[in-house]
Amino acid sequence: MGQWLYRNIVEPGKLPLLLALASFVLTFVITRVVVRLIRAGKGPFGNVKAGGLHIHHVVPGVVLTVIGGFGAVGSGRYGFGAALSAVLFGIGVGLVLDEFALILHLDDVYWTEAGRRSVEVVVVTAALVGLVLGGFSPFGVNDLSDQELQDRGTVILTVAANFLLALLALSKGKALTAVFGVIVPFLALIGAIRLARPGSPWAKRFYRRRPRARARSSLRAYRHDRRWAGPSRRFQDWIGGKPDDELARSLPQRR
C-alpha cells in the first residue's frame, strides 16, 4: 500500500489533490451531520449568528477557498505549504458546495427540493476529482501511446472529437453523461448517439416536426425516470437529509 501510494500519488505530485479531495468529502459529511442535528434539535450545535444575521457556512467556505487557492498557487506542488493549502481549499470547497443551491437560487433553499442540487454537485465533483486522482486525464489523452503523444495532431483531434461529443450529449439534455464524458470518452459517445431528452435544445430543434421521435424520446425519458428517480432520491436523502414537505413549509408556523 505504501509503495502504491508513493508511486501513484506522491511521486507524480498528486498528494495535494488527494488531501484536497479527502478534506472536501470529510468536510461535507461533517457539515451535513451537524446541520441535520441542528434541524432535529439535538446536540450542542446551533446556527451561527452575528447581530441577528444568520451566517451561512458558505461564507467561511469562500474565505477558506480563497486562502487555499492562492496558497496553492504560491507554494507549488510539494512541501508543507502545498499540503496545508490543499486541505484549506478542500475544506472551503466542501462548505461552499454544500450550499451550492443557496448560491444558485440566491435563497435559503437548503431543506427544499431545490436544495438537492447541492448534493448532486458534491457527488459529481467528488467523482470527477477521484477519476483525475486515479489517473484519468481529461478527454482520454492518457490512453494514447508515447508515439501518439508525440503526434500533436492526434492529440488535438482526440481532444476536439471528445469535446464535441460531450457538447452533443449536453445539448441532448444529458448533463451528467456530458460531464463524465469529458473524462471517459465512451460515456460521451453513448450520450451523443442516444435519443435526446424531451425539452432539451436538441429535441426542440430536431424533433419539432418528428412526432415519432418526440414520442420515443418521451417514453424513454419516462421509463428512465421511473426506474432511477426513486433510488436517486433515496440516495440523496441518505447523504444530505430529506427535504421538508412543501405543504408543511407553506402552512403558517405556530407561535
UniProtKB/TrEMBL annotation:
Stretches that traverse the bilayer: 15-35, 55-73, 80-101, 121-141, 153-170, 176-196
Lineage: superkingdom: Bacteria
Record keywords, A-Z: Membrane, Transmembrane, Transmembrane helix
Protein name in UniProt: Integral membrane protein
